[in-house]
Amino acid sequence: MPSKSRKVTARPSSQRPSKKSQPKAPTAAKRPPNTSPKPKPASKSKPLPSAKPRRPEAALARAQRVETPSAAPVVASKKFLVRAGVSAGTRYPVLVGSGLLSGRCPELDEALSSRRAVLLVVDAGLSPAMIEPLIKRVEARSLRWGVCVVRASEDDKSIETLQRVLAEAARLRLERRDAVIALGGGITTDLAGFAASIYRRGIDVIQCPTSLLAMVDAAVGGKTAVNITVPGEHGEGGSKARLLKNMVGAFHPPALVICDVATLATLPPRELRAGLAECFKHALIGKALGDANLSDFTRKALPDLLKGNQPALAQLVHRNTACKARIVQLDERETSTKPDGGRMMLNLGHTFAHAIETLPGLSWRTASGQLQIGPLKHGEAVGLGLLCAARTAEALKLLKPTSKTALPVSIELERTLRQADLPTVVAGLPPAETILRRMFDDKKVDAGRLRLILPRTGGLCVVRDDVPAPVILDSIRSIAAPSSN
Ligand SMILES: NC(=O)c1ccc[n+]([C@@H]2O[C@H](COP(=O)([O-])OP(=O)(O)OC[C@H]3O[C@@H](n4cnc5c(N)ncnc54)[C@H](O)[C@@H]3O)[C@@H](O)[C@H]2O)c1
Questions:
Q1: Ligand 1 center to residue 229 CA distance, Å?
Q2: Which of 21, 170, 442, 473 lies 20 to 30 Å from 410 when distance is taken between CA atoms?
């Protein structure tokens, strides 16, 4: 597990000081001068060598010997296949375990074996120690490689960063059979996935999510995207540009997903909690997702999960990715017209969340009373969005307590969010009417009608496009801290 912070020692051959300092892995005959894997966005173009890298069998055999597992995994890894491309009928493996990126992972080795070059798109927030084993693995196979470091902010999940990634892929002369490897949170996996979907009209992407949210949600299912900005409208920040989340993207299923929960050891606690919000989303509609006991499991495991217990996290990630996989393989392109919304059900809470997620000037208090200043993390906004959706559903009498003695679901949910130290009310929200207007930017809006995914009694859900505006407005007001009204 990459816990120690040390410098990335693996460098493209052209940047190495001497042969002695190189890792034992066999080196390619010549590699292009790659982007430095230092965590900063940069890539200066240099001339490409014409020589092809050598991949003799003996070198490959030596490479395989180098990759002995560093330590026994904390948890046994689990694997399942996700069907992608309904007509093509391809399947991609999802692996969940501990130490997969730094240790034994035959699926990753196999996925690399058919390539000549890979571009690593790496989250700037990761320690070099987390990136290094992947580079060593790539080097051990004598692949040409480059690194593009991206900052994990919604502002940087942009067309400009996309252009930078594509330019790096082109500089590296990635071909159709080559691949992009995404290593990072959901911003990185979305961005790298989208770049892979359009570079040479589509090359493979191997998703290696390193945040809980990216593992349980973003990396599985093939949705990729970047944000765009549009000029603001009167009354919504004047002429200030508005950021439209995930407005440009593509469905591009990954070739392989590796959820290595060991990487979560360095994830900031606030990010871990934000990831839990997506798990609460799945738990709220567990029956619809094919795991009726997910809610019980999540509630009971919460104290362990908050402590970063790896077996608990691995189980959580496995159950949540399996839930997501079940749904996306039935309705990959989100075209289902079923009352429960098909894949759209995974957007529970997100219409509310997207409308508040990028708002400046929000604040709330953590459980310990500490003032947290916005903007919200995606998962924090999702938690608030779930509350709004649950309260809307209760107002419409769609969602009732699970038993006569049980509390209303929205109250249970509010408690769970508090237990996970996620916000349940925020100060600084604009008027509810403004937020409702922003909700119409949602991609689910159909013929000008807002479609809301709402939870239903018993872990089910339903899509409604007839929810009266006052009901929605009341639910939005319920998440506004008293001072902001
Ligand atoms: N494609 C989909 O289906 C889908 C689903 C859900 C969310 N998303 C997208 O995912 C994004 C949110 O993802 P996120 O919450 O992972 O945010 P993120 O990518 O911003 O990552 C969160 C933060 O954690 C850091 N980080 C990540 N892994 C780390 C690790 N192991 N150690 C230390 N730091 C680490 C990142 O640098 C960043 O600062 C949003 O843009 C959202 O739209 C996509």
A1: 20
A2: 442
**Residue of minimum CA distance from atom 25 in ligand 1:** 125
User: Which tens digits make up the pLDDT trace of 329-352?
Assistant: 989 999 999 999 999 999 999 999
The answer, yes or no, to whether any atom of ligand 1 lies below 6 A from the CB of 210, is yes
- With the C-alpha atoms ordered 220, 221, 227, 233, is the resulting torsion angle positive or negative? negative
Domain locations in the chain? Answer: 20-47+57-267, 296-484
**Confidence tier at 7 by pLDDT (50, 70, 90):** very low
20-47+57-267 CATH fold: Rossmann fold (3.40.50)
| Atom nearest to 377 CA in ligand 1 | 15
Taking 50 as the threshold, does the pLDDT of residue 210 lie above it? yes
Which residues, 6 or more positions from 243, have their beta carbon under 8 angstroms from its beta carbon? Answer: 154, 155, 227, 228, 229, 358
Q: Is 152 in the pocket of ligand 1 (CB under 6 A)?
A: yes
CA distance 164 to 110: 28
In 3D, which of 147, 86, 105 has the Cα closest to residue 256? Answer: 105
**CA 190 to ligand 1 centroid distance, Å:** 9
Cβ–ligand 1 contact at 274 (below 6 Å) = yes
Whether domain 296-484 has CATH 1.20.1090.10: the reply is: yes
Ligand 1 binding pocket mutation candidate from 94, 134, 190 (most atoms within 8 A of CB):
190
Nearest by Cα to 254 from 313, 297, 214, 196: 196
Give the pLDDT confidence score for residue 88 in this predicted structure.
58
Query: For the segment 413-462, what is each residue's pLDDT rounded down to a tens digit?
Result: 999 999 999 999 999 999 999 999 999 988 788 888 999 999 999 999 99
